[in-house]
Amino acid sequence: MNFGAIWRVWAPLIVGVWAVVELFSKGPGPHGPTRWLGLALAAIGLSGVIVARYTLGRSFSISAKARALVTTGIYSKIRNPIYVSGEIVLIGIAVMLWRLDFLLFFLAVIPVQIFRARREARVLEEKFGEEYRVYRRGTWF
Asked: What's the whole-model pTM score?
């Protein structure tokens, strides 16, 4: 793994794990079973992001690029696992901190993720054509 990949992929994930742990231990809200449920959801979401980014490898980018059509691992079931997992993190944080107003943020992010997924789909379809269309039919979001 090169130095750029460490900063682009792994550093944000380490910061994300650190932030969730800090929110869990020091954040506002009740410290009971609901907080643990939120932590579990946030951990599941972060795990999904980590697995997805690892699976993408050098194909990961912030903007839509068609370097390779990744169809293995988590991508064999979900076309956009980083977006789905990110939403699970947001739900987990809202539950963990018992901030139901954070759920509004979650709802506001959904259309943005759908827009980004559609843009990426166009880029991938232009590059990979029928191979991408077959992949898309066999996966969710």
From this structure: 0.82
Q: 71-93: per-residue pLDDT in tens?
A: 989 999 999 999 999 999 999 99
Cα 83 → chain centroid: 4
CA distances from 82 to 35, 56, 62 (A): 23, 10, 11
Q: Which two tokens stand for residue 52?
A: 């997805």
Which CATH number belongs to the domain containing residue 57 in this structure?
Answer: 1.20.120.1630
User: Could you read off the pLDDT of 2-13 as tens digits, one per residue?
Assistant: 666 666 667 778
Q: How many domains does the chain have?
A: 1
In terms of C-beta density within 10 A (0-12 exposed, 13-18 middle, 19 or more buried), how is residue 15 classed? exposed
